[in-house]
Structure formats: C-alpha cells, structure tokens
Amino acid sequence: MIFIELFITFFTIGLFTIGGGYAMLSLIQTQVVTVHNWIDENTFTDIVAISQMTPGPVGINSATYIGYTVLADSGASQFLCILGSFTTSLAVVLPSFLIVLAMCKVFYKFSNNVVFTGVMNGLKPAVTGLIGASALLLITKENFPDWKSWILFIAAFAASWFWKANPILCIIAGGIIGFLIY
Predict the structure, then answer these.
(1) What is the mean predicted confidence (pLDDT) over 37-43?
(2) Residue 149 lies in domain
(3) What is the DSSP string of 90-145?
(4) Is there a single domain that holds both residue 38 and residue 104?
(5) Buried b (16+ CB within 10 A) or exposed e, 62-90
(6) pLDDT of residue 111
(7) Same domain for 129 and 168?
(8) What is the DSSP string of 45-80?
(9) What is the DSSP letter of 40?
(10) What is the pTM of this model?
(11) Claim to verify: residue 149 and residue 126 sit in the same structural domain
(12) Which of 65, 115, 132, 136 is packed most tightly, with the most Cβ within 10 A?
C-alpha cells in the first residue's frame, strides 16, 4: 500500500511541477512533511542538502532519498527500501517524460499559435514563484541566513543581473569568500 501512496504522491508532484527540481521542493515538502507526515521538517532539510551535493537534479535526488527513508523508517528490508527509491524516482519523472513526448508531437503544429505562446509565457512567473517558495520553505530557525550571507547573496545577484557575470564564477567566488569570512 505504501508503494501506491508513494507513487501517486510523487507522480502528482511530477505532473504539477513546472520549472525543475527546485520548483518541486515546496510541493514535496508539503506532501511528505505536512500531508502524509512521512518525515519531519529537519529530515526534509537534510534530504535537500544531501540532494544538492549529489550529482543529478535536486528534485529527483530528493524523491529517491525520501522513497528510501520512508520505507527504512517503517522497518522494511533493504530490498524494499531500494524499491521505494525506484518507485518515487520513476513516479516523479514519468509525467515529465509523457508530457514532453506528447509536446514533441504537437509543438510544431502549435508553435505559431497565439494561445499556446501566451500559455508558455504565463508559466514563466509561476515557475519563478515556485522556486521562491522553495527557498522560503528551506529557511528555518536552524539555518536562517546571517547578515554576511545576505551580503553575499546581494553581491552575487547584482553581479549576475547588472553585470552579466558568469554564474560559475559567481559560485566559485561565493565559495571562496564564504570560506574566508566564515
């Protein structure tokens, strides 16, 4: 039964998330922590941190780790925990795969359609909002940024927005400066 619940939950998250892994984090947090109470808030924050450090998209990595953790916390065997990881990973990517497959078939047919173009342009602010919501959900009492972090954020934002700085260089510079000031 838990496999069906995990599949439906993560399939729904994958179906209604536009904008990638970071946009999906707020939906994952709501479903996994609040609605189903499978894990607590601190565990979710740890999962996101681990998912960011491992190769691959953060949303899929989070889904994989959550699938394993939910089964492990229920006392399931190692095999069932791995099956839980597979279930959540498949469920979260399957909607995107099916939607892209369908869109490839009809994209050229509707690419000059005004309604289609309007819908695609309307999705951009929604994606930005979902990513912002994810960032706000990850700010907890334990990891609330201090003033030095806010200065680094503002400097990186200004460098990339106003001076069109290379994002990789911003990340490297932020890492070096963070290492020096902390």
Answers:
(1) 93
(2) 145-182
(3) HHHHHHHHHHHHHHHHHHHHHTT-HHHHHHHHHHHHHHHHHHHHHHHHH--STT--
(4) yes
(5) bbbbbbbbbbeeeebeeebbebbbebbbb
(6) 79
(7) no
(8) HHHHHHHHHSSS-HHHHHHHHHHHHHHHHTT--HHH
(9) -
(10) 0.63
(11) no
(12) 65
